[in-house]
Specification:
The protein has 133 residues and is mainly α. 80% of the residues lie in helices and 0% in strands.
Length: 133
């Protein structure tokens, strides 16, 4: 059992290490070079901030762990919690590579419906979090 766990842990680490480092790198760049004016436009007063965050997150590919440094940098720069959450969820749930994989098992119409429902749901959750926090 111990050998199996070790082997599986090594496989998982081998799969995600590059995404974690990429997320850390982007987060570091974002933290150091992200203009404060951009963060101000992504605050909770801007109704378009959450849909923009969802749209920007779709072409990116990372897992939840890899995007944490970027999300942390966004929060530290003053981006609203709901906007940041929507960005993170869109990367994890409806990224372009994920959609390409899902296309192998879904018809275009079902994939479009899935994408639309998830995008709208993420947007609503982000807006709700911006209202609460």
């Amino acid at each position: 059992m111990h050998q199996y766990a070790t082997t599986e842990a090594k496989k998982i680490i081998a799969e995600i290490w590059k995404w974690v480092f990429l997320g850390v790198g982007i987060g570091a760049l974002f933290h150091g070079f992200f203009p404060l004016q951009w963060a101000e436009t992504l605050n909770s007063d801007n109704l378009f901030a959450v849909p923009m965050a969802v749209i920007v997150g779709v072409p990116l590919y990372s897992d939840e762990v890899g995007v944490i440094p970027l999300v942390e940098a966004m929060l530290l720069k003053g981006v609203a919690v709901g906007t940041t959450l929507a960005f993170m969820m869109s990367i994890a749930a409806i990224s372009l590579p994920e959609l390409l994989i899902l296309k192998k098992v879904m018809h275009w119409r079902a994939l479009a419906l899935f994408t639309g429902i998830v995008a709208v749901s993420i947007t609503l959750v982000g807006l709700l979090f911006n209202l609460i926090f």
